[in-house]
Amino acid sequence: MTETRLRTWTHAGGYSLAAVFIAILALQNLRYGFYSLFYLGLAMAAVLLVGLAYTVICRRHQLSAPGHAILLTLINAGLAASVVTLDAPGIGHWAAPLVVLNLLILPLRHGLLLSAALLIPMLLVSWFTSPLVAALNLTGGLLLLLAITAWYAWHYDHMAESAKDLALTDPVTGAQNPRFLDETLQKEISRAIATGHPLSMIALDLDHAEEIRTLHGTQGLQTLLRNITRQLFDIIRAGDSLYSGDDAMFFLVLPFTPEEGVRVIAERIRRSISEQEWPEVGPVAISLGCTTRSSDDTQAETLKARALQAMAEARQRGADTAWFISGEPAQA
User: Fold this and answer.
1) What architecture is domain 178-325?
2) Rg of the chain over CA atoms, in angstroms?
3) With 0-12 CB in 10 A as exposed, 13-18 as middle and 19+ as buried, what is 262?
4) Is the dihedral of CA 19, 22, 24, 27 positive or negative?
5) What is the chain's pLDDT, residue by residue, as a tens digit (332 residues)?
6) Is 288 strand, coil or helix?
7) pTM of the prediction?
8) Four-point Cα dihedral 127, 132, 138, 144, nearest 10
């Protein structure tokens, strides 16, 4: 299940349960003759049903649907105003479903601010108008509910962010996941075409990777690749991106980098990797293939294939080599 679909089901369930809860409270107040609370409950239930309908209509855009904030602000403001203006016993309990909705549907910080804006006047009125025991029970119950729901919302956001990071990064090397390479490269090509800025790419492969695997095992090779990844992240600039490839291969996408720049970066990488004494493995060698986008390069596959061709040429010329294959310079 995607995060968008999960959010849709969560939002729809939250609105539905809150509407049922408020409707039951409204019917109970009608039974005892509290008509003002009955009409307030009907209005709140109606807004919650509007939120349910909005969730269904915007089910494909739940991660960026701004209408939830408007609806929840409206219903929270209505209840807060009713607490201050109506002399109604037990109205403080109506805040419970709204606190849960605020934190489940809105971003955590916004949900906390909206819940605080609702609870502060409600609890102040309770302390001034209700018996001490009732005020303590209401305060403790609502604050406990706020804490538990906020913890759940924080934990969910943390887990979702962790899952997103795992999807974006290669768990072996720590570089970005290779399945996003073609998409990112195509976007950078489109931007280079629109702005006229140069775009370069480097394909890098660890020489003798199979021999390293045989001598030091798969774990030893993976540790080496993670260390190389950290070294590469220290070398590349902000705005550059690093992707893992097959086996012991890496790709670097270098926006705003002309031919002279990619040659300098490739040589800096080659020297940094080859002159390093890597733990348990010792010195290693790499082959680098470099290229710069030409005016004819409009597809990611073309630029990537030329970088791989340059890397193969570097390998043929011996280990620890960088080779550049040029195309026609991109026009500004």
Assistant:
1) 2-Layer Sandwich (3.30)
2) 30
3) buried
4) negative
5) 566 788 889 899 999 999 999 999 999 999 988 898 999 999 999 999 999 999 999 887 766 678 899 999 999 999 999 988 887 777 888 999 999 999 999 999 999 999 999 999 999 988 988 889 989 999 999 999 999 999 998 988 877 666 555 556 776 777 887 778 888 899 999 999 999 999 999 999 999 899 999 999 999 999 999 999 999 999 988 889 999 887 889 999 999 999 999 999 999 999 999 888 998 889 999 999 999 999 888 999 999 999 999 999 999 988 789 999 987 644 43
6) strand
7) 0.55
8) 100
DSSP 187-231: HHHHHHHHH---EEEEEEEETTHHHHHHHHHHHHHHHHHHHHHHH
Amino acid at 127: W
Sign of the dihedral defined by the CA atoms of residues 35, 40, 41, 42, in that order:
positive
CA nearest to 19, candidates 101, 104, 142: 101
What's the CA gap between 106 and 104, in Å, rounded? Answer: 6
Residue 245 CA: distances (Å) to CA of 74, 166, 181, 193, 266: 51, 16, 9, 26, 17
Q: What's the rounded Cα separation, in Å, for the pair 82 and 139?
A: 18
What are 324's strand-pairing partners?
290
Q: Domains of the chain: which residue ranges?
A: 3-168, 178-325
Q: Strand runs (DSSP E) across 208-302, as ranges? A: 241-244, 249-255, 286-292
DSSP state of 249: E
CA-CA-CA-CA torsion for 326, 189, 226, 305, nearest 10 degrees?
Answer: -50
**What is the Cα–Cα distance from 103 to 98, expressed in whole angstroms?**
9
CA distance 222 to 131: 66
Please tell me the distance from the alpha carbon of residue 323 to that of residue 317, in angstroms, as a whole number: 9
Asked if 45 and 22 count as a contact pair (C-beta separation under 8 A), the reply is yes
